[in-house]
Specification:
The chain folds into 2 domains: 4-43, no CATH class; 51-105, no CATH class. It has a two-stranded antiparallel ribbon. By secondary structure, the chain is mainly alpha-helical. 41% of the residues lie in helices and 4% in strands. The two termini are 21 Å apart.
Protein backbone atom coordinates (compact mmCIF):
# COMPACT_ATOMS: atom_id res chain seq x y z
CA UNK A 1 0.00 0.00 0.00
CA UNK A 2 1.35 3.41 -0.93
CA UNK A 3 1.53 6.00 1.83
CA UNK A 4 -1.31 8.53 1.68
CA UNK A 5 1.20 11.28 0.92
CA UNK A 6 1.93 9.71 -2.47
CA UNK A 7 -1.77 9.69 -3.35
CA UNK A 8 -2.35 13.17 -1.93
CA UNK A 9 -0.36 15.03 -4.57
CA UNK A 10 -2.62 13.57 -7.28
CA UNK A 11 -5.75 15.18 -5.85
CA UNK A 12 -7.26 17.73 -8.20
CA UNK A 13 -8.14 20.19 -5.44
CA UNK A 14 -4.55 20.23 -4.21
CA UNK A 15 -3.27 21.18 -7.65
CA UNK A 16 -5.68 24.02 -8.35
CA UNK A 17 -4.86 27.42 -6.91
CA UNK A 18 -8.53 28.36 -6.61
CA UNK A 19 -9.29 25.30 -4.46
CA UNK A 20 -6.01 24.92 -2.57
CA UNK A 21 -6.78 27.15 0.44
CA UNK A 22 -10.02 25.38 1.32
CA UNK A 23 -8.35 22.02 0.82
CA UNK A 24 -5.53 22.96 3.19
CA UNK A 25 -7.94 24.26 5.85
CA UNK A 26 -9.49 20.81 6.08
CA UNK A 27 -6.28 18.79 6.08
CA UNK A 28 -5.31 16.87 9.17
CA UNK A 29 -1.62 17.57 9.68
CA UNK A 30 -0.96 14.57 11.93
CA UNK A 31 -1.92 12.26 9.05
CA UNK A 32 0.40 14.10 6.69
CA UNK A 33 3.25 13.91 9.20
CA UNK A 34 2.71 10.19 9.79
CA UNK A 35 2.57 9.54 6.06
CA UNK A 36 5.78 11.51 5.53
CA UNK A 37 7.56 9.51 8.24
CA UNK A 38 6.37 6.26 6.65
CA UNK A 39 7.62 7.36 3.26
CA UNK A 40 10.92 8.61 4.64
CA UNK A 41 11.66 5.65 6.90
CA UNK A 42 10.34 2.67 4.99
CA UNK A 43 9.64 3.35 1.37
CA UNK A 44 11.93 6.11 0.20
CA UNK A 45 14.36 5.14 -2.56
CA UNK A 46 17.96 5.09 -1.40
CA UNK A 47 21.07 5.91 -3.37
CA UNK A 48 23.28 2.88 -3.81
CA UNK A 49 26.44 4.74 -4.79
CA UNK A 50 28.30 7.56 -3.17
CA UNK A 51 27.67 10.83 -4.96
CA UNK A 52 31.04 12.43 -4.25
CA UNK A 53 33.37 10.87 -6.78
CA UNK A 54 36.93 11.48 -7.94
CA UNK A 55 35.72 12.62 -11.35
CA UNK A 56 34.35 15.82 -9.75
CA UNK A 57 37.70 17.47 -10.16
CA UNK A 58 36.71 21.03 -11.04
CA UNK A 59 36.72 20.58 -14.80
CA UNK A 60 33.47 20.79 -16.76
CA UNK A 61 32.15 17.47 -17.99
CA UNK A 62 32.39 18.44 -21.64
CA UNK A 63 35.95 19.64 -21.26
CA UNK A 64 35.20 22.52 -23.59
CA UNK A 65 32.99 25.57 -23.95
CA UNK A 66 29.28 24.86 -23.86
CA UNK A 67 26.01 26.64 -23.36
CA UNK A 68 25.67 25.13 -19.89
CA UNK A 69 26.32 28.39 -18.08
CA UNK A 70 25.09 27.06 -14.75
CA UNK A 71 27.61 24.21 -14.91
CA UNK A 72 30.47 26.60 -15.66
CA UNK A 73 29.39 28.95 -12.86
CA UNK A 74 29.15 26.08 -10.38
CA UNK A 75 32.59 24.77 -11.34
CA UNK A 76 34.11 28.27 -11.14
CA UNK A 77 32.66 28.88 -7.66
CA UNK A 78 33.81 25.43 -6.53
CA UNK A 79 37.33 26.04 -7.84
CA UNK A 80 37.58 29.49 -6.23
CA UNK A 81 36.42 28.07 -2.90
CA UNK A 82 39.11 25.39 -3.16
CA UNK A 83 41.59 28.25 -3.63
CA UNK A 84 40.47 29.56 -0.20
CA UNK A 85 38.26 32.36 -1.47
CA UNK A 86 35.55 33.14 1.07
CA UNK A 87 31.99 33.71 -0.15
CA UNK A 88 29.97 35.72 2.37
CA UNK A 89 26.26 36.37 2.16
CA UNK A 90 24.94 39.85 3.05
CA UNK A 91 23.83 38.55 6.47
CA UNK A 92 27.37 37.36 7.27
CA UNK A 93 26.90 33.63 6.72
CA UNK A 94 29.67 31.94 4.75
CA UNK A 95 28.95 29.62 1.84
CA UNK A 96 30.97 26.43 1.69
CA UNK A 97 31.01 24.55 -1.61
CA UNK A 98 31.38 20.82 -1.06
CA UNK A 99 30.77 19.87 -4.69
CA UNK A 100 29.62 21.48 -7.90
CA UNK A 101 26.92 18.97 -8.78
CA UNK A 102 23.97 18.16 -6.56
CA UNK A 103 21.53 15.33 -7.19
CA UNK A 104 17.81 15.96 -7.01
CA UNK A 105 15.79 13.43 -5.10
Amino acid sequence: MKPPLIELYKKEELNQVSRFLNFMKNMEMSGIIDSYKQLRDKEAPRRQNSYFVDSHNGITSSGSASNRREEHLAVALFNRSRANEVFKLPDGRVLEFIDYQTPFA
